[in-house]
What does this fold into?
Amino acid sequence: MNLEENMYNHENNLSKFASLSKNAIRLKQEESDIRPAYFRDIDRIIYSLSYTRYIDKTQVFSLKENDHISKRIIHVQFVSKIAKTIGRALGLNEDLIEAIALGHDLGHVPFGHVGEKILNDISLKYDNTYFNHNAQSVRELMSLEKNGQGLNITIQVLDGILCHNGEFLSGKYIPKEKSVQTFLDDYNNTYINEKANTMLIPMTLEGCVVRISDIVGYIGRDIEDAIMLGILKKEELPKEITSVLGNNNREIINTIVTDIINNSLNKPYLLLSDDVYKALKALKNFNYKYIYDKANTKEQIKKYVEMFNFLFQFFLNDLENKNKDSIIYQDFLNNMNEEYKRKTKKTRIVIDYIAGMTDDYFIKQYNVCKKVEKNKNKWYNWNIFIE
It folds into this structure.
């Protein structure tokens, strides 16, 4: 057995419902190496610039002086570990699962879902398109990484990322067979159809595993973070929920993961028992009412809206005026290839730039741009405003 055969050998023992690397599809043909296709995708994702930016992106709670509160980088690792546990028990392809899990939130914007909603409003108003973080994650990998060339990630991974949204909970997950064109249609529809996100179904069982693991990865940990910050007290958790799922993150994860495995083994779909599904749905609703709706004050949200809109207009004006001293040129557009510059609308360029910012970088650029505006310089040396 040669080295390449040895790398693929473990797939011989997978379930008949698993997605094999030999069936992986890329939009552009390329030479293979010793790594299986999905293993190779993992490497490409973790070495990407957008993956590096996870480290300073909000999970739920923004601008909290507590080093133990979850950031986006921790969340995707939780999802990966949970999903791989389910995948191993069901005999699925763990490489495919890990690639989807690690890449699923690459398109998240500063300040989490609050920032996503604001950027969606801006996108609708100025670009006439919807903005969704799952589609932006795919866009990062297909169209923005590597100076606009993209990373040529497999369709199976891209589809799992597009369809990962754990906000849409179900008791049963059945993969949907797709062609490359069907995937591309699903992706493009998220920009023009408000309901498209609610209709997305993964093409692989591994994608279904990541989708349910997304909510398992955050539902209990967000409760722990909220308790740590004093937003919630543990005794406030409804007993009708904790009696089924448990009353801490470890118990919640163990209950749901075990339930999925027991109900899905040797089946071409994932299934939750009625009791666990109803309890998980109730816990999700509880989290929204007592955590997510309280994670940011009205004053904070109002400030975020002002900041996003100010930066969007500021950078759009710089593009329209061809102000090449602007940081949007220096930090972003100058690094993109000519095809991206030629084919991408100015409004979309600004949206791509803002979407890729970390929380800290976003705040820094807002403060710098405010200084620039105050000085009212048409052409300026950007660096003199950076402290």
Observations:
- The chain has two domains: 3-294, 298-385.
- The CA atoms of residues 90 and 266 lie 7 Å apart.
- Strands lie at 172-173, 270-271.
